[in-house]
């Protein structure tokens, strides 16, 4: 069965391009992500979604991020709040930390920095979530960078680990070669896309997947993992 320990992240920002960029990046990292374009919707989504981490912009029309943070913390929700502030708004950072924000970042920021901040909050507040994730016959231990299949640890290179983790966490979804290249090999990969086929073949050998029942090929579309 799929692990119940899915890490949930709520993104709150009134700039659509920021939400879209962060949603894509965090989903590719395996997080379950929801977004809200303003404070009022953020409170509603948080009540139903119960996020572990909220990435929250301070400056929004209507209910601002400070009020959203205050409400979340007053309701006693077990949630880590990372505030996003403008470069010169020191008062907002002080106010945010005073009302319970757990961290803050100054715009503009890199995705890698945000990811590091999220992981730091998870280690601090939700350490149990960073253990093993069980999906069907697979067990993923991101701390050890190890994947087991049917109880047996697989000997994987770093790239094989990233590829198999992607396929397993996105199980049931078809991933095209271009999507896989963008995520596993990064967007600046300049080689041939047949490198994906080479790695898929290697993974199938290590999984004993001679009949391609675990990693399926959908001709002209891409690859899909079906959990057994």
From TrEMBL:
Q: What is this protein called?
A: Two component transcriptional regulator, winged helix family protein
Give the organism the record lists.
Paenibacillus vortex V453
A GO molecular function term, named singly, is: phosphorelay response regulator activity
Name the DNA-binding stretches: 130-227
Instruction: Give the transmembrane region(s).
Output: none
Alphabetized CDD domains for the sequence = REC_OmpR, trans_reg_C
PANTHER family for the chain: REGULATOR OF RPOS (PTHR48111)
Q: Which UniProt keywords apply?
A: DNA-binding, Phosphoprotein, Transcription, Transcription regulation, Two-component regulatory system
- Determine the domain of life of the protein's source: Bacteria
Q: Which GO biological-process labels does this protein carry?
A: regulation of DNA-templated transcription
Describe the location of the Response regulatory domain by residue ranges: 8-122
Q: Where 4-aspartylphosphate occurs along the chain?
A: 57
* Chain ranges of the OmpR/PhoB-type domain: 130-227
| Any Gene Ontology CC annotation | protein-DNA complex
């Amino acid at each position: 069965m799929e692990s119940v320990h899915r890490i949930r992240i709520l993104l709150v920002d009134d700039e659509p391009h920021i939400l879209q960029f962060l949603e894509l990046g965090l989903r590719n990292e395996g997080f379950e992500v929801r977004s809200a374009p303003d404070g009022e919707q953020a409170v509603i989504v948080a009540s139903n979604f119960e996020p572990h981490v909220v990435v929250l912009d301070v400056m929004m029309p209507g209910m601002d991020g400070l009020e959203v943070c205050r409400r979340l913390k007053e309701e006693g929700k077990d949630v880590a709040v990372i505030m996003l502030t403008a470069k010169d708004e020191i008062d907002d950072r002080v106010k945010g930390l005073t009302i319970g924000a757990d961290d803050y970042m100054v715009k503009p920021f890199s995705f890698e920095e945000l990811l590091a901040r999220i992981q730091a909050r998870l280690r601090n507040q939700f350490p149990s979530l960073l253990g093993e994730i069980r999906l069907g016959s697979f067990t993923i231990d991101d701390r050890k960078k190890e994947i087991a299949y049917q109880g047996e640890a697989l000997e994987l290179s770093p790239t094989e680990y990233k590829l198999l983790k992607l396929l397993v966490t996105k199980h049931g979804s078809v991933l095209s070669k271009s999507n896989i290249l963008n995520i596993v090999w990064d967007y600046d990969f300049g080689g041939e896309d047949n490198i994906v086929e080479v790695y898929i073949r290697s993974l199938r050998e290590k999984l004993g997947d001679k009949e391609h029942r675990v990693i399926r090929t959908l001709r002209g579309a891409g690859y899909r993992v079906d959990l057994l």
